[in-house]
Write a structure and sequence with these properties.
single chain; 617 residues; alpha+beta; Glycosyltransferase; Beta-galactosidase, Chain A, domain 5; 2 domains; eight-stranded antiparallel β-sheet; 15 helices; elongated; plasmid; DUF2264_N; DUF2264_C; UCP014753
Length: 617
Amino acid sequence: MNAVTDNPLETRADVQRAVRQLVEPLETHRSPGGARLKPSETGAWFPDTAAELEGFSRPLWGLVPLAAGGGEFDGWERIREGLRNGTDPNHPEYWGSAGDYSQKHVETAAIGFGLALAPDRLWDPLDPEAKDRVAAYLRQVDDASLHDCNWLFFRILVHLGLDGVDEAYDRELSEETLDRLESFAATEGWYADGPPEESARDYYIPWAMHAYGLIYAALADGDDERADRFRERAAEFAPEFRHWFREDGAALPYGRSLTYRFAQAAFWGALAFADCEALPWSQIKGLWLRNLRWWLEQPIFTDGGALSVGYRYSTLKTSEPYNSPSSPYWALKAFLPLALESDHPFWQADPEPLPELPERTVQPEPELIVCRDRTADHHYALAAGQSTHYREKYTKFAYSIEFGFGVRGRRPGLEGAGHDSALALSEAGREYRIRESVEETAVRDGTLYSRWTPWNDVRVDTWLAPASPWHVRVHRLESDRPLRSAEGGFALPKGDDDRPENHEHRTGTGRAWCLTPGGTSGVRDLRANADGYERREGEAADPEPNTNVCHSRTTVPTLVGEHEPGTHWLVTAATAARDGADERWEQAPQLESVDPLVVTDVDGAELLRLERPFDPA
């Protein structure tokens, strides 16, 4: 546990104290020479040297703004000692050279940021020889190839630092790199995290592409036109991004690197840092503070008070192979506003709640429909799907703030399928495949479309549409082989009490409904009563523990079917609520007709119409 959990986060002084509280438990894990830090023994796919540099540098994302704004921290000499030793080839704690695509370039960006914003703490007290070594180490980024994505900003942040302390760097390369980064700009204030036609839209847009662009806008000297473009895109993006946040500050778990946690608030803090009033300061401050408060109420700390790897709790099963023990400290990017003086309008503003936002919001760039089911206090997004290496983090049908999402486990069958909010297909019921490589997507008339091919001779076309308090999924399954299907609803937390009176499962032909102390979740087969239709049976499936990002133990209402070779139409409705109310079960949508496919609510109002064949273009 960390003392920060008792911090009310109401004043600027509270937030300053929070940075110290978050960083202080790390000191016991620092190496004798100060250059390396390793809070636990888990590893990443890069060497420990880079991971331990990560432990040294990532706390700077909070400590540097703290210092720039006049906040106190008594560990700067220890950090300077580590900087001297880590860049000294003759010292045992030397970080080693940083070549092409090295993780070390990611971590030196925080050092560059520190030189630009707080040179009096990181640079000025160094002797001339140490300054030469630090500058030379940072300049390696000019001779290295970097991944063609947000990584290019790490070169820019290093350049900002070198420029701030009057050290040389490749200015022509800096311009080329900035131009390349701007080529990633998309519509409605979005960027792609790399070449737009092949890169994801996820949290790396707000907490990396926008945050670094705003840092550049605030610190760069003499590049006003580019700085204005960074601010303008951020101002256009802000109204989009606020839809990812619930009224209490929690945000959508979607995409990779969720272990960075309250880096979700970094964009709001970066707006303040760059003096970009994209929304009223009171609204920006409210979004920022509520997210920080929500996170610090969650069980995200180790016994020693360090941030753990995981999302809402500690688990390695949902992490990425590049998550080292210190990776979560990228969360400290949220503290950029501490660099501002106390009289800045951001700090003077009273935080306000979100305004009344639409029940559903279509976002074409990430191909999401964000839904606010206020009667159930359930905030989630429907997703057309994005093809990445991280599968379930982008290809589920829905992503819920309350119920999270699951990744696949190691066990065979549904226990390891990761099939919540997904259609899972199997030849024998042992190994399941869900939507992974998405071949085609479209957003049209409030409906999301995707085409995916789990086998060469199996094709699935999927349409998703909100139908509050439900959402509707339509699948056209074309297969040359017999298949078993399992379609899951939202994953429901089991809680700690397994007594039968606290859990209820209602299952049968075409339906599955689960109730636990964590809420209710259900799926219905809207074709269950159709003549000649292959029936799907309902059951409650229990995924492998610790595979859901929000809850360690879950159950998933599931429809299971058997399908012979041929073409099959599956029409499913799914819903969930944070409380135990189940009256919505009687409000399920109805299948009015199949050709055209029309779904209505219980009163007959049309929710979804699908003319076949559907042309996604």
